[in-house]
């Protein structure tokens, strides 16, 4: 879609706006969506979302491929697609918590990450290759078939015991959003763990939008280096998912989380402050994604076991908002600070980016140290989730 849209518009603004609109719906309405996940059978949610994606991909294809693309329709479809992706992510987290044994929960989460991450590595290359030899319509048809197959696969998800009153397909979402936020913020360990993780994500996002600029500056504007950095980052996430999926790592889960977050800052960002080379950029991109990926699966497992089953969707939706909402704001702030601090010379631009990378590393390390000192995540891991946390009623 990106290639065809750029062919038609030659506008980077249109492409960035599409990404921004998708992020808007995927992150900022997730507490509302979590209530729907808990209200319906997970099988039905997965099937309906997959079928809705099939419809949206057809509408998206028609909008993009038309002689005069209707941007209002395009953005509306992208917003809906982002919301559906959010529902799917929340639902899968809840389903895995129901199906997997406690001892294999990290491995199950890693496998899901692998299934979701592999297309990120392979998808753009396959899509670009198909676009060069076939038509855009053919790619849309393949996309459509994949979503229909996903809807059929969802039939394998077991139904939960029937609840009194059954399913009602009309529901005001605000009660679910309030419940999720109330449960999360009402429990001291949940609240502290999540806010510290959100702080870490803010430090992650502060230099994130400037990393392509950094790569281009240290490589004399080499697009090959930029591509290598992107591929290495994607491969790091896939490699960590493969390792955690294949090997059951012993010990406490919170240790893996803290180690992953700390090493992601020390190995995945700090070397960029010390060494300016293309090789360092590629290695750092791989290591950071690997470390963050290695922390995500055990962190999710902690939350899956600590959250009561009946409110998992609502809490996961609230957690998604609190975890990811600071990221785009930090990316925007980092770009603003770099632009205002650096004159036009490349040396000044590089110094500004390096300074923001260092600030981001400090923020991430502070959040990790406080996470260790307070012990909130360690205590959260010991929570069984049989009772609704304080503040949920």
Automatic annotation (TrEMBL):
<keyword id="KW-1003">Cell membrane</keyword>
<dbReference type="Pfam" id="PF07690">
    <property type="entry name" value="MFS_1"/>
</dbReference>
<protein>
    <submittedName>
        <fullName>MFS transporter</fullName>
    </submittedName>
</protein>
<feature type="transmembrane region" description="Helical">
    <location>
        <begin position="350"/>
        <end position="373"/>
    </location>
</feature>
<feature type="transmembrane region" description="Helical">
    <location>
        <begin position="71"/>
        <end position="96"/>
    </location>
</feature>
<feature type="transmembrane region" description="Helical">
    <location>
        <begin position="12"/>
        <end position="33"/>
    </location>
</feature>
<feature type="transmembrane region" description="Helical">
    <location>
        <begin position="223"/>
        <end position="247"/>
    </location>
</feature>
<feature type="transmembrane region" description="Helical">
    <location>
        <begin position="45"/>
        <end position="65"/>
    </location>
</feature>
<feature type="transmembrane region" description="Helical">
    <location>
        <begin position="108"/>
        <end position="130"/>
    </location>
</feature>
<feature type="transmembrane region" description="Helical">
    <location>
        <begin position="321"/>
        <end position="338"/>
    </location>
</feature>
<feature type="domain" description="Major facilitator superfamily (MFS) profile">
    <location>
        <begin position="1"/>
        <end position="158"/>
    </location>
</feature>
<dbReference type="GO" id="GO:0005886">
    <property type="term" value="C:plasma membrane"/>
</dbReference>
<dbReference type="InterPro" id="IPR036259">
    <property type="entry name" value="MFS_trans_sf"/>
</dbReference>
<keyword id="KW-0472">Membrane</keyword>
<dbReference type="InterPro" id="IPR020846">
    <property type="entry name" value="MFS_dom"/>
</dbReference>
<dbReference type="GO" id="GO:0022857">
    <property type="term" value="F:transmembrane transporter activity"/>
</dbReference>
<feature type="transmembrane region" description="Helical">
    <location>
        <begin position="136"/>
        <end position="159"/>
    </location>
</feature>
<keyword id="KW-0812">Transmembrane</keyword>
<feature type="transmembrane region" description="Helical">
    <location>
        <begin position="254"/>
        <end position="272"/>
    </location>
</feature>
<keyword id="KW-1133">Transmembrane helix</keyword>
<feature type="transmembrane region" description="Helical">
    <location>
        <begin position="278"/>
        <end position="300"/>
    </location>
</feature>
<dbReference type="InterPro" id="IPR011701">
    <property type="entry name" value="MFS"/>
</dbReference>
């Amino acid at each position: 879609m990106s290639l065809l849209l750029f062919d038609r518009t030659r506008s980077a603004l249109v492409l960035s706006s599409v990404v921004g609109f998708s992020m808007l719906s995927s992150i900022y309405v997730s507490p509302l969506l979590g209530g729907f996940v808990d209200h319906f059978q997970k099988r039905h949610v997965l099937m309906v979302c997959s079928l809705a994606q099939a419809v949206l991909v057809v509408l998206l294809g028609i909008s993009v491929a038309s002689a005069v693309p209707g941007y209002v329709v395009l953005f509306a479809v992208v917003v809906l697609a982002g919301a559906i992706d959010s529902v799917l992510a929340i639902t899968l987290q809840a389903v895995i918590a129901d199906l997997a044994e406690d001892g294999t929960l990290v491995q199950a989460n890693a496998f899901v990450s692998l299934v979701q991450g592999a297309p990120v590595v392979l998808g753009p290359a396959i899509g670009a290759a198909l676009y060069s030899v076939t038509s855009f319509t053919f790619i849309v048809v393949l996309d459509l078939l994949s979503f229909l197959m996903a809807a059929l696969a969802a039939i394998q998800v077991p139904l939960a015991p029937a609840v009194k009153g059954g399913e009602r397909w009309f529901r005001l979402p605000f009660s679910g959003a309030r419940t999720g936020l109330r449960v999360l913020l009402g429990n001291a360990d949940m609240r502290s763990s999540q806010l510290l993780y959100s702080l870490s994500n803010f430090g992650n996002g502060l230099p994130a939008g400037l990393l392509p600029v950094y790569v281009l500056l240290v490589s004399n504007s080499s697009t090959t280096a930029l591509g290598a950095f992107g591929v290495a980052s994607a491969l790091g996430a896939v490699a960590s998912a493969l390792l955690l999926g294949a090997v059951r790592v012993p010990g406490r889960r919170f240790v893996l989380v803290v180690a992953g977050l700390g090493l992601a800052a020390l190995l995945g960002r700090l070397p960029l402050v010390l060494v300016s080379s293309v090789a360092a950029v590629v290695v750092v991109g791989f290591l950071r994604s690997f470390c963050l990926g290695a922390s995500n699966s055990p962190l999710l497992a902690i939350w899956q076991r600590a959250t009561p089953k009946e409110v998992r969707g609502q809490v996961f939706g609230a957690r998604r908002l609190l975890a990811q909402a600071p990221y785009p704001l930090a990316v925007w702030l980092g770009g603003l600070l770099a632009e205002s601090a650096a004159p036009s010379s490349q040396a000044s631009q590089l110094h500004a980016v390096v300074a923001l990378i260092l600030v981001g590393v400090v923020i991430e390390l502070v959040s990790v140290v406080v996470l260790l000192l307070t012990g909130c995540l360690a205590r959260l891991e010991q929570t069984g989730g049989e009772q609704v946390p304080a503040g949920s009623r």
